[in-house]
Structure formats: structure tokens, C-alpha cells
């Protein structure tokens, strides 16, 4: 439907300019009213749980009450510097970075391999795709329940089978040097099949005639991958890297079920730290400061990558 | 959406011929089998009798005397029917409200011209970047202020508006020819009637794609319901499973843990195996879960 405005409004010449503008404005508003009413239900919930929540985080990070009944007191950057000085938080940041890089790279590499191998569709490849995609569908909590047994010392799946070959096995979830890598395995297992889909979609944009020409010119599979396919997949890479980073920061269910951040904070990730501060220590100020810092980091990262993406698109 | 249609068919001929070196394919087959091992163990362990003992628990060869004892035990220890009902209520409640909000907002962005359209559009866009999972602490306080702590409504409420769904519907509505609507307009159909009788029926594929994404993600949600829900009888499947696992782990009842996990993931897995193509194309469309 088109609620096109009339080109000119019948405004009397004697009307002062201010009133004229007001009338124009009110007319524009009236014409927009149906749209506002349609947007209202969404905007109410966005205002509450996205923008309201964002405002709340900022206020909770900057102000504090001495007691529940006391008035709000501005504490400035105290909470933020408090969080930054907390070794548990800086440890969680380092863990999250290791975790993000260490899960993103292998899962993206595997996803690319899977997509290249399964680009052709037949009964075999669709069965393989389904097998690789299954972990994406199950709750992280369920995956953790299964991997709890897989990592169980001595009798667990890993030790039962690998133990026949290797004499000395690590305590997968109990050793602070290894536990973080152990939970990273779950993430790679769970996400590689998801990223595979985007590479499968991205492969569709590889121009056939260029591939054909390269083939005729005698370029081998490796050359074609290196000089045609990978450059063509650049936007997909960027997109998947953003999603992988977001996933790394927002998926912590396995930490809850398997390690509770331990042993000795070795698997404490930023989101788990926020949860601990808020729910276990009732320290809303610290939790909010940590949330604010994490959001700022994530948002600048996504903005940066989307800008790179937009520049690339524009440059074509 | 044309690339999605093609996605499930074939990569272009020349690409196909060149990018599947045999070694890479063999490696992928091997890894796909490795990927299935946790599922395989779950199935085998669920059917394994307790008399096999802990030392055979990891054996991937199925027991020759399969039993449903583990399923029965899991069913009795955990309140799985209750968890299942709660999760169903949460997912369908969220989805129903979302259908209303995204249809209306999607239509406004697709077909109406109004003052402040661009800034309001950015307001929606920002929701995609302000990762909801990170806003759990303030959202918990907001939900509590509404008196909705420990209620299923409290679990659902933050997801009632969906920027992703709005964009999806906007795209679907924009693809519908305006002539259809003009005809209805001449017949005197109101705005809501036109949405209801023209736009909604013609956009069912987009609705089903959105439904798949929405239900999958909320079916699997854990942290948020964990924080909102306190009463055991209001737990969704994920929270129920985590409590169940923690209890059973203490008694080393791995067979029942496998059975409980199977019960939690079976509904979605079965739906997936039936509607595989639908699922895969929805996930590609979404990008953002």
C-alpha cells in the first residue's frame, strides 16, 4: 500500500511560517501513524530488553547503592577499574581469547574442507553433510553430558580407546593446562558443521567460466583453490569469523555443566565470570562493568569487520 | 534467496570437478564418522544393561542383551515429561508472539513510508549486534521488576521482538507484487486484512524458515532459563538435563545419563531427519541463530 503524500498541502498564504511547518510535521506524523502502530509491539520489547537493558548495564556499572535502600551514588569508573584489576577477570579474558582463536581457526578450516569435499550433491554427500550438521542441532548442555563421559579418566571413551595405544593419558578436564583445550574440542565438534553451510553457499559464487579457463590454462587444483576459490570466498570468511567470535563469547553452557570454570579458573570464560559475579557474588556493579567491557569489545569488532566487508563490496 | 535453492543441488560444474581431491574427500568421510561417535555412544550406552559394569561403558560395540532399563530409570529420576512440556510452552509462546511482531514490523519496513524510517531501521539493526546472551544480568533485573522471576513468561519475554525475523519478513513482503494488494485495496480491504489475507499466506516459506531457527535456538537455550527459573517444576529440558547429569554423575550412572540426553535431543533430531532440506536452507538464510 502506498500512503504517498500529496505533493503540496493546501496551506493558506496568511499562515505564519512556524505554524506552516508544524502543520506539515503533523501531517507527516499522521501519515506515518499506521507504520508506528505496526512497529509498536516490536519497539516496546526492543526498548525494554535491548536498549533498556543496555542503559541498565551502563547505570549499574557507573552507579552503586551502599545498601539496597540507599540512594544511587555515582562511583564513576570504580567498577570498571575494579574488574580490570581482578585477576579472575583478566584471566577470563585471556582464556576467552585463547578459546576464541583456538576454536575459530580449526572449526573454520574443517568447515572449508567439508564444504569443498561435499560441494557436489548426491546420496553420499548429503548423508555426510547431515552427519556433520547433527551437533549443531543439539543443546550445548546435551553435548556436554556426552563429552563428560568421553573425557572421563580411565573408563571414559577417549581413555578406553586411546589408552590401548598410548601409555600415559592426561586428566582431560582435571588438569588446568589441558581443560581449556578439552572444552574447545566440543565447540569445534559442534560448530564446524554450521560454518560448513556458509562455505557451501559461498562456493556457489565461484564463477564457472573462470574455473573453466584456469582449467584449460593448465592450473592444478591447488592453484585454482589458491587463486580463484579462496579469493572468491573472502566475504564468507569474514562473515564466518564474526559468527565464530560471537559464538566463542556467548557459548558457555559447557563450562557450567563440565568444569564450573575450574580447575583453578583454567576454563573460566568472560560470560561465566559475569554470571558468577551476578548470581554467585551478587556483585551487580562488577558484573555490569564486565558486561559493558565485553559488549564494547564485541561491537567494535563486528562494526570493524562489517565495515571491511562493506568497503570490499563497494570496491568492486 | 536463489543461492540457497542452488546450494542443495550442485556447485557449478567446473568447481565441482576441481575442488574435491580424493584425499580431502577421504578425510571428510573419516571425520564425519568421528563426528558421529558421541551419538553412537549415546545410543549404545542407553541400551547397555547395568550388569556390563563401568569397564565396558565405553565399548562402542552394542551389548548383545539390550535393555530399556536406562530409559525407564532416566524417566523416573528426571521429570522429563514436565521438562518437555515446559520447553514446548516456551518455544511455542515465543514463536507465536514473534509471528505477530515480525509480521507487523516487517510489513511496515517493506511497504510503508514514514517519518524516521531509516533511524528506526537502524534501531532494529543494532539488536543483532547487542548480543542478547550478554545482556542477561540487566534483563534478569528487568524481568524481576515485572514480577516475572521464576515464570515461563519471564523466560520468553526478552525474545518477543526479533530483529532477524523482522528483516526476514521485510524481504519476503518486498518480493510480493504490489498489484495483488492494489486489487484488495479496491475491494475495500483494511490494512490488517491485506496483511492477513495477502502477505501472510504468500510468505509461508519465510515463516517456516524463521520458525525452524527460532524453535531450534530456544529449544537449546540454557543460561537464560537457568537464571530466570528457580522452581524445579518449571525447568525446561536443558536445565533439567544439567541437574539430572549432575545428580547421576555422582552415582556414575552413565547409562541413565545417556538415556536422559537421548530423550532431550530426540525430538529435534527426528524433526531434522524428516525435514533435512528445510533445516539446512533455514540455517543458511539465518546466519544469525
Overview features:
heterodimer; A: 316 residues; mainly alpha; two-stranded antiparallel ribbon; 13 helices; 2 strands; flat; disordered N terminus; B: 289 residues; globular
Description:
The complex is a heterodimer of chains A (316) and B (289). Chain A is 73% helix and 1% strand. Chain A contains 13 helices and two strands; from the N terminus they run H-E-E-H-H-H-H-H-H-H-H-H-H-H-H. A two-stranded antiparallel ribbon of chain A has the order 1-2. The longest helix of chain A is centred in the N-terminal third of the chain and has 46 residues. Chain A is flat and about 80 Å long. With 289 residues, chain B is mainly alpha-helical. Helix content of chain B is 72%, strand content 0%. Chain B is built from 16 helices and no strands. In chain B, helix 14 runs antiparallel to helix 15. The longest helix of chain B has 32 residues. Chain B starts with a helix and ends with a helix. The relative contact order of chain B is 0.14. Chains A and B meet through helix 1, helix 3, helix 4, helix 5 and helix 6 of A and helix 1, helix 2, helix 3, helix 5 and helix 6 of B.
Amino acid at each position: 500500500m502506498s500512503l504517498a503524500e500529496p505533493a503540496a498541502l493546501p496551506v493558506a498564504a496568511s499562515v505564519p511560517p512556524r505554524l506552516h511547518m508544524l502543520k506539515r510535521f503533523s501531517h507527516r506524523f499522521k501519515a506515518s501513524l499506521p507504520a508506528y502502530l505496526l512497529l509498536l509491539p516490536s519497539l516496546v520489547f526492543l526498548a525494554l530488553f535491548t536498549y533498556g537493558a543496555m542503559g541498565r548495564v551502563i547505570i549499574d556499572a557507573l552507579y552503586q547503592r551502599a545498601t539496597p535502600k540507599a540512594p544511587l551514588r555515582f562511583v564513576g569508573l570504580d567498577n570498571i577499574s575494579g574488574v580490570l584489576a581482578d585477576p579472575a577477570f583478566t584471566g577470563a579474558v585471556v582464556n576467552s581469547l585463547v578459546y576464541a582463536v583456538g576454536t575459530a581457526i580449526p572449526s573454520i578450516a574443517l568447515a572449508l574442507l567439508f564444504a569443498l569435499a561435499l560441494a557436489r550433491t548426491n546420496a553420499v554427500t548429503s548423508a555426510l553433510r547431515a552427519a556433520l550438521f547433527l551437533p549443531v542441532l543439539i543443546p550445548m548442555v546435551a553435548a556436554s553430558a556426552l563429552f563428560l563421559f568421553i573425557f572421563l579418566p580411565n573408563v571414559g571413551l577417549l581413555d578406553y580407546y586411546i589408552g590401548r595405544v598410548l601409555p600415559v593419558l592426561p586428566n582431560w578436564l582435571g588438569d588446568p593446562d589441558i581443560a581449556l583445550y578439552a572444552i574447545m574440542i566440543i565447540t569445534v565438534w559442534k560448530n564446524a558443521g554450521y560454518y560448513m553451510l556458509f562455505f557451501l553457499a559461498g562456493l556457489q559464487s565461484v564463477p564457472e567460466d573462470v574455473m573453466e579457463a584456469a582449467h584449460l590454462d593448465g592450473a592444478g587444483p591447488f592453484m585454482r583453490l589458491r587463486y580463484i576459490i579462496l579469493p572468491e570466498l573472502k566475504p564468507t570468511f569474514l562473515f564466518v569469523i564474526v559468527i565464530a567470535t560471537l559464538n566463542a563469547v556467548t557459548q558457555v553452557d559447557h563450562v557450567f555443566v563440565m568444569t564450573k570454570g575450574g580447575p583453578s579458573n583454567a576454563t573460566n570464560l568472560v560470560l561465566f565470570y559475569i554470571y558468577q559475579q551476578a548470581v554467585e557474588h551478587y556483585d551487580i556493579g562488577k558484573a555490569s562493568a564486565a558486561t559493558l567491557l565485553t559488549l564494547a569489545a564485541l561491537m567494535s569488532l563486528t562494526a570493524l569487520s562489517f565495515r571491511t566487508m562493506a568497503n570490499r563490496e563497494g570496491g568492486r | 534467496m536463489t543461492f540457497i535453492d542452488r546450494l542443495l543441488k550442485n556447485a557449478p560444474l567446473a568447481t565441482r570437478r576441481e575442488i574435491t581431491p580424493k584425499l580431502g574427500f577421504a578425510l571428510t568421510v573419516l571425520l564425519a564418522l568421528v563426528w558421529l561417535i558421541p551419538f553412537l555412544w549415546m545410543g549404545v550406552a542407553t541400551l547397555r544393561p547395568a550388569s556390563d559394569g563401568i569397564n565396558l561403558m565405553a565399548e562402542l560395540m552394542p551389548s548383545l542383551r539390550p535393555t530399556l532399563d536406562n530409559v525407564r530409570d532416566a524417566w523416573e529420576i528426571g521429570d522429563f515429561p514436565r521438562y518437555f512440556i515446559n520447553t514446548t510452552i516456551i518455544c511455542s509462546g515465543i514463536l507465536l508472539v514473534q509471528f505477530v511482531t515480525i509480521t507487523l514490523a516487517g510489513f511496515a519496513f517493506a511497504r510503508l513510508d514514514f517519518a524516521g524510517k531509516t533511524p528506526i531501521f537502524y534501531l532494529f539493526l543494532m539488536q543483532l549486534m547487542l548480543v542478547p546472551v550478554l545482556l542477561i544480568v540487566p534483563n534478569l533485573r528487568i524481568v524481576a521488576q515485572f514480577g516475572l522471576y521464576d515464570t515461563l513468561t519471564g523466560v520468553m519475554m526478552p525474545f518477543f521482538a526479533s530483529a532477524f525475523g523482522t528483516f526476514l519478513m521485510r524481504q519476503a513482503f518486498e518480493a510480493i507484487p504490489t498489484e495483488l494488494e492494489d486489487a484488495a485495496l479496491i475491494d475495500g480491504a483494511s490494512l490488517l486484512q491485506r496483511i492477513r489475507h495477502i502477505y501472510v499466506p504468500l510468505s509461508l516459506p519465510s515463516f517456516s524458515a524463521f520458525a525452524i531457527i527460532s524453535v531450534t535456538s530456544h529449544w537449546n537455550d540454557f543460561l537464560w532459563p537457568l537464571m530466570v527459573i528457580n522452581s524445579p517444576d518449571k525447568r525446561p529440558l536443558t536445565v533439567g538435563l544439567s541437574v539430572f547429569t549432575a545428580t547421576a554423575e555422582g552415582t556414575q550412572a552413565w547409562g541413565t545419563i545417556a538415556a536422559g540426553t537421548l530423550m532431550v535431543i530426540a525430538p529435534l533430531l527426528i524433526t531434522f531427519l524428516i525435514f533435512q532440506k528445510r533445516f539446512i536452507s533455514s540455517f543458511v538464510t539465518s546466519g544469525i541463530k
